[in-house]
Amino acid sequence: MAINELGNYLRARRQTVRPADVGLPTVAGRRVDGLRREEVALLAGISREYYLRLEQGRDTHPSDQVLASLAKALNLDEAATSYLSRIADPPPQRSFAPLPGSLGDDVFAFLDGFEETAAYVINSCQDVLAVNERASRVFTFGTVGSNMFDTLFSEAARENLPDWDDHVLLGLAALRQRSDPDDPRLHELVGRLLVTEPDFARLWGRHDVTVQSSGVGTTYVDGVGLLTLQWQSLAVPGDAQLTLVAHYAEPGTPAAEALRSLG
Questions:
Q1: Phi/psi at 176 (5° precision)
Q2: Alpha-carbon distance 173 to 176, whole Å?
Q3: Distance (Å, whole) CA 24 – CA 43
């Protein structure tokens, strides 16, 4: 998967940009949805041949100036630009995801201190490493060693979650942004899902990258039905591959009562 990650990313991104988005005329009968290679090269101020080498993986070390020009040509936001730079020039010290069983009991005790909040810690591959009691009752992935995507691609999630594609795309964008492309655990997870889940292959191929630290999410809870909660994610100090996620509801609301009843 990490083979030619730069070229794959450039190709996926140019296919999502419409000519009108970057000031190019839209010609009737155009046969591609996104930008052509020569159009990206023109917008970035580089030769078509050089851009082709980048996409094909024959040149994997573009300069910072070229990367900045490509990011502008492809309308990349800050998170996507950061990801482009990271895969073009990986840090010498790789940062792989800690695995389930690697966290101490003190982390679980810390999570249990979150009153009326469903809280858990995940790694960059979205494996659950620690979870409090309320989260274990709210979420079907609420056990150490489970993975968020096994829940998202379950039949129950497909049937019960409104805007299912949006939920999956948000998770995949975070997976790509937070994980090391050479992480063996990432290869294992993505390789398995590519084989077992056709929808995963379709959505993973978009190469979306984003950072979202808060939002509102809906989950299906047996005996409760659809439960909509606010959430916040926080980086764990000392390990960039760990994220603390807390789901909560405004006091006095039906969602808060439902969440309290599950504690």
A1: -70, -40
A2: 5
A3: 10
Tokens of 229: 């909660």
Answer CATH for 5-88 from 3.20.20.210, 1.10.10.10, 1.10.260.40, 3.30.830.10? 1.10.260.40
103 token code pair: 């966290």
The CATH fold of domain 105-261: Beta-Lactamase (3.30.450)
Residue 144 to residue 129: CA distance in whole angstroms: 5
111 with 236: CB under 8 angstroms? no
Question: In the structure, what pLDDT confidence band is assigned to residue 194 with cuts at 50, 70 and 90?
Answer: very high
Over residues 8-51, the pLDDT tens digits come to 999 999 999 999 889 888 777 787 779 999 999 999 999 999 99
Sign of CA dihedral 19, 24, 28, 29: negative
